[in-house]
Structures are given as C-alpha cells and as structure tokens.
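Need residues for this backbone.
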C-alpha cells in the first residue's frame, strides 16, 4: 500500500468500533496519533497481521529519513554483508533486509538504508539500532549484572543517569503498580527472582545481545522506594556507554507515556 497521506486513510483501515482498547477515546483519534507518529498501527488489537505488515512496509521510514544525522551510519549499515552481520549480532536476513528484535518486535533495515517496522521510529530507537549493528562485537550475554556506573565510562555520567533515568523511573513505578506486569506483557519482558533482593525484577530484551534488568524496592518501614537499572557485563562490547544511556532514557520516556495513558499523574519533567 502507498504511504498514507492523511489520518483518514489510516482511519479507513480500522473497524471504527471506538473500543478504546488501544488507549485512545476513538478510532479517529488513534488514526491521528498513528499519522503523527505518536502511536504504532500495530497497537490496534483488531487489525490483522497482514494489514499491519502492509502499513509498516508503506512507512518504510520516510520519517527517519528526515533526520540526516543518521545518514552516515545508515549508509554504513546498508553496505555491510548482512549475513555476516546477522551472525555477529543475533539478527536474521530476510531478502534484502537485516532484521533484529527490539523489545520483542521486528525492526529491519534494507540494503538501501531504509527502515521497516511497525514500532515507533524515534531517535532513541534508531541511534542505538544503528550503533549496535555497526559496533556490536557479538559477545555472549554473561548473566553478570552491572550498574551503569560500572560500565566503561559510566562512573562520571552516573549522577545524571541516576537523576534523569533511575529516579524518574522510580517515580513512575511508585504511582503505577502495574508497570512491571505491563513491561512483561507489552515488551516481552520476564520477571525473575532478583539477584539483588529487590521486590520486583524484570529483564527486558532490548536488543538481541543487550538485555536490561530493572529492579524495584518498595517503600517499607520508613525506607523510601528505590529503583536501579542493570546491564549485562557484555554491554561494554555490544552497545557502549552512549547507546546504553540512550536506551535507558528512551525506556523511561516510553514508560512515562504508558503511565500517562493509564491516567497516572507524573510530576517529573519530561525527559529529552
């Protein structure tokens, strides 16, 4: 299908039931949000996978093309041997596309440098995706968890990471009790017995060789709640400190929007 020219073209694909299962009040509101890039077409529970795939192909990401800061790495990725890259980074090749799972969902780039996906095309997704494809050394996940400050180059940046990411995410978790079950359900996360005695621990498969673990301690007997984010030791070689920060900040933004969609007030400044 051709790329939609307006929200009404997206609206025509919907069943117009105004079921609100997507979180919007009407199908027309959802169509407008998709057209503006705030929602993904796949968030409608009534669309067939075939329609979602056709729409994703049509997007092919003219949106991402508008950001020329990604032109050079995108062209570098397009020039790679996709089969060799897929073996190194845990992806797969489908025709002329290199495909990875990001939070359990397919994200592809073709040999012309165009993206194909039905998830939101945001800089915090695109940048780490390209960096991962180009620079990931293919180190196996070790199961040894490190805080951000323990990663190479993380110590000097940890105060900002603590304030803008861990503290912001803790505030969301304090007010949104379903956050962790929604993480598991929506983003292919899995809850585990915590290696750090936290009340809740969820591992998110952000990229094939880049899991992130989020641990949350509830407030108890005069002690404030706490939340810490951990990376596998392999993150140093598979994603690097800059993209690790970007991914964690992006997750925080995403969880904030999820909470707001469920009517949970968030009083910290929106992260940029």
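Answer:
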């Amino acid at each position: 299908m051709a790329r939609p020219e307006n929200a009404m073209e997206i609206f025509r694909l919907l069943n117009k039931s105004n079921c609100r299962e997507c979180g919007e009040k009407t199908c027309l509101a959802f169509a407008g949000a998709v057209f503006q890039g705030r929602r993904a077409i796949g968030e409608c529970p009534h669309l067939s996978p075939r329609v979602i795939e056709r729409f994703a192909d049509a997007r092919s990401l003219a949106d991402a093309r508008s950001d020329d800061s990604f032109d050079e790495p995108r062209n570098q990725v397009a020039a790679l041997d996709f089969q060799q890259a897929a073996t190194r980074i845990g992806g797969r090749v489908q025709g002329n596309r290199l495909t990875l799972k990001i939070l359990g969902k397919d994200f592809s780039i073709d040999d012309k440098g165009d993206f194909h996906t039905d998830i939101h095309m945001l800089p915090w997704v695109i940048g780490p995706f390209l960096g991962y494809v180009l620079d990931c050394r293919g180190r196996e996940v070790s199961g040894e968890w490190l805080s951000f400050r323990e990663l190479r180059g993380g110590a000097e940046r940890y105060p900002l990471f603590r304030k803008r990411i861990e503290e912001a995410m803790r505030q969301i978790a304090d007010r949104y009790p379903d956050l962790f079950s929604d993480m598991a359900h929506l983003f292919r996360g899995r809850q585990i017995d915590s290696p750090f005695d936290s009340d809740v621990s969820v591992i998110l498969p952000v990229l094939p060789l880049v899991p992130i673990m989020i641990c949350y301690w509830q407030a108890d007997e005069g002690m404030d709640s706490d939340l810490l984010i951990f990376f596998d030791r392999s993150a140093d070689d598979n994603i690097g400190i800059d993209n690790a920060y970007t991914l964690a900040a992006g997750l925080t933004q995403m969880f904030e929007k999820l909470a707001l969609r469920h009517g949970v007030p968030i009083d910290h400044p929106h992260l940029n």
